[in-house]
């Protein structure tokens, strides 16, 4: 249903050591293959359609060949558009590369094509135009029903692509700068006419690699793969001022087989936020986000390190994160939902996390609100289940957890294991409408989560490795 849909312009570390003995104890061979796939993130080995950023495209041109001027003043939108139009003729001949050399290349929004590598040299900077007319107005996403900030359309991203295959954005750590301050001021002053643009948005695309690039000052969410499959974001740096509104880092949205690894992100909103549509529109569109891998993430934010929602009406599942370091932030892990969202968040596993100077380590919010309109169904209740968080250490943490479900719609099978936090609050946990289990948690988990995981509730928890089960049995026997 959603495979061919595209925007139209309305304006023109390591997992813990699992030895072979323990692997043999997994219930089926399918479990083994899932484990191996989920914790191997190289883009040319994980996903079925292989992408290698080092592969030489047989055809290459420089943006300067199309009249572009890298002085930071000359508008180069036509040069980018013309270069990519020319390279499209090589899409079926092994693909092509557009080379952006050192310089400051001012541009408005432009489209990518299939079988293209956009390559930025070390001192190359692509600058987003500060004239909103250079960011065309496009239709809202069908899974949102309207612009995220305002009813109606939205500005198209600076770098955009739809219905593409085999797309690479990479280089020698060149920079893409959205110059977002003009948009942040419009948001604060309530003078926006349409929802702000992303820095990069790829839609309905398959086989995407974004690597070795620095992204600065996005007007809105920075990297937004939506309705995509087989996406890798690797070795990127994303920076925006802590005061910048809604400058999320990476937002996989109704997308599957997404790998995010080795990234540093410091922004004014969630570092990574997994989404899948908004209320009745997301429910109707019905495309979940699934099989999301996050590895070796470092960052700080005024919001959450890893967030799911609040727009999750198409469902989110099979999220695995490991080797995460969050510092100087509001929260580390957050799930946001609300009556009216519908959908589900299930089978989430976060491990090996270090926190420093974080207000709330774990935060689940069941009454987040923010609906697209008044026609949502308040009886469309979300399902939140099988969330496992383990191997977490934190210093200078104000509160261990604020986990608040929905009355009549408890969040269930929330499992916490081997978590040690140095907490300053006299009330480290605040939990309501939640059910689950805990093991080796300090400070001791809240009452609804105090029942021990092992041995009775091991199967209720998502993806607790067997070596942990054996360790817990040894501890119980010792006690």
TrEMBL record:
It is found in: Secreted, Cell wall. GO terms for molecular function: polygalacturonase activity. The keyword Secreted applies. Keywords: Cell wall, Glycosidase, Hydrolase, Secreted. The keyword Secreted applies. It holds the Pfam family Glyco_hydro_28. SUPFAM superfamilies: Pectin lyase-like. GO terms for biological process: carbohydrate metabolic process. PANTHER family: PECTATE LYASE SUPERFAMILY PROTEIN DOMAIN-CONTAINING PROTEIN, PECTIN LYASE-RELATED. Belongs to the glycosyl hydrolase 28 family. This is Polygalacturonase. It comes from Psophocarpus tetragonolobus.
